[in-house]
Amino acid sequence: MKLDSAVLKQLSEEFGEAFYLLDSAQFKQNYLELKQAFSNLYPKFNIAYSYKTNYIPKLCRIVDGLGGCAEVVSEMELDLALRIGVRPENIIWNGPVKEAGRLEAFLLSGGNVNLDSLEEAEAVKAVAGKHEGTAFKIGLRCSFDIRDGGASRFGFDTEGEDWKKVLVLIQETPNLSLQGLQCHFAKRQMAYWPARVQGMLDLVERTGILPERIDLGGGLFGKMEDSLKEQFDSPIPSYAEYAEASAGVLARQFEGKEKKPELFIEPGSALAGDCMKFAGTVKTIKKMRGKWIAAVLGSQKNISMAGVNPPLRVYAMGGRQKAYEGLDFAGYTCIESDILYRNYRGPLACGDMAVFGNCGSYSLVMKPPFILPNFPVVDIAGEKPELVKRGETFDDVFHTFCF
Ligand SMILES: *Cc1c(COP(=O)(O)O)cnc(C)c1O
């Protein structure tokens, strides 16, 4: 469906005055393009979608349907993947805390685990000891310096004692083997990609173990409009540029070699970022000491973006518009800093709908139950709108409390 005032009017009659607009077709296209960009350079490649970035089941199911994997970081996300029907061998379980019983069951079912600590390695060793006839494979989350100004708290410090110990532990456990090396760094700028790729290749050389998998994690920018790109102080790389900096390097490294590891990345934002918009109705417009403020049904917490202006489009809904300059769109919460967009210039009337773009990552999943339950999510990829999450109610928020 193409978004216009008539469509928004129809949607607000059906779903209320504020809602998320999902574009699942865009998500699918992003997946296919990203897959292609990397596979072109290094065919032994797959994507593990980071559930935490946006775990709308419909998106997770699209990834599974296209042959991608699920990247989960908790028992809750693991349950979601299993509920959707993802096979354990297509699930990668990362994260700093894993419950021992679930870890055992997951390993026995053939799932992939990247260990984060020596304590976890000991737990896996115990599992291997209990099931001597079964071969177990595990991966290790690796942490090394990529000169991004921060030392990661995740995984094994590959310069530290625990790294040596975990390699010995794996070697000394007959039915346990190292399947993969994984890393993830949150900084998305191109500047940090060569160091993360080289860091992993150095580990392969240092340990003398060629793993089945090299997993470079997420931390890729997604697609965005120029108005948003311009607000970052470094260029926003394309899928092809990320691919060249990683898959291209691996292709050259393993050219002509008989054994090549499978390359994985774990994108979240790169796939989901531009697939969701948030639409909120303008409720009031007032002047506060010389500054125009429009209050929308919606919050900065709905769109998650901070410090930048998201792409914004105002749709006239029939009210008498006036021209404004320097107007801020503010949210329904009682927080002074709840601003969705600063210094808007253009026409606006009460009752208009403000549609904020690029809010597909870390938005829905991080929205707190603060002041109001959350709004519904509607997929507008098809001919007709499809509800993928109903609006939350008072009961959704309060049924865990004891009255
Ligand atoms: C958060 C996370 C990702 C996804 O990160 P994006 O920035 O959304 O691409 C991938 N892997 C791991 C281990 C993560 O913690």
Distance between the termini: 44 Å
* Helical residue percent band: 25-40%
Q: What is the number of E strands?
A: 18
**Radius of gyration over all CA atoms, rounded:** 23 Å
Our estimate of the beta-strand percent is 15-25%
Tally of contiguous helical segments: 13
Low-confidence stretches: none
Q: What does the overall shape look like?
A: elongated
Mean pLDDT across all amino acids: 97
Distinct small molecules? pyridoxal-5'-phosphate
Biggest sheet statistics: 9 strands, mixed
Write structural notes for this entry.
- This protein has 403 residues and is an alpha/beta fold.
- It is built from 13 helices and 18 strands.
- It has helices at residues 5-15, 24-41, 57-65, 75-84, 100-108, 118-130, 161-172, 193-207, 226-229, 239-253, 269-272, 300-303, 394-398; strands at residues 18-22, 45-50, 69-72, 91-93, 112-115, 136-143, 156-157, 176-182, 213-215, 262-265, 276-288, 291-296, 312-315, 322-330, 339-348, 353-356, 377-379, 386-389.
- The strands form two sheets. Strands 1, 11, 12, 13, 14, 15, 16, 17 and 18 form a nine-stranded mixed sheet that branches. Strands 2-3-4-5-6-8-9-10 form an eight-stranded parallel β-barrel, surrounded by six helices.
- Helix 2 packs parallel to helix 3 (57-65) and helix 6 packs parallel to helix 7.
- The radius of gyration is 23 Å and the shape is elongated.
- 40% of the residues are buried.
- The site of pyridoxal-5'-phosphate has 17 residues, from helix 11.
Short description:
With 403 residues, the protein is an alpha/beta fold. Helix content is 32%, strand content 25%.
